[in-house]
Fold this protein.
Amino acid sequence: TYSHARLDKIPDNKRQWQIVYDKRQLERLFGIQVINFVYPYGKWNKQCVEIVKKNYMAAFATDNGFYPSLENRYFIKRLEILPQWDIKQFEIEMEREYKNENCNVLA
């Protein structure tokens, strides 16, 4: 968004502007299509999702975990990766999350 506003707390017209204006600015400045969105602070409401669906192909939430399918591509989970992890710790965490989510992402 343009100013990383809490989209669930602002009026509809400002919400629309925050979600769409920044996309247009980035596309114009960099000459690329912006297709993904991230909900600021992981906060959203029904109106946010409706606007995002009209303007983006997918959106990321702040929920931790794997995203096993594209059933709902507007609430894709993410994995937190900490800078102090070495490659072995990264592997351990990936395996743990994979088992917790019971999905086929790594298969």
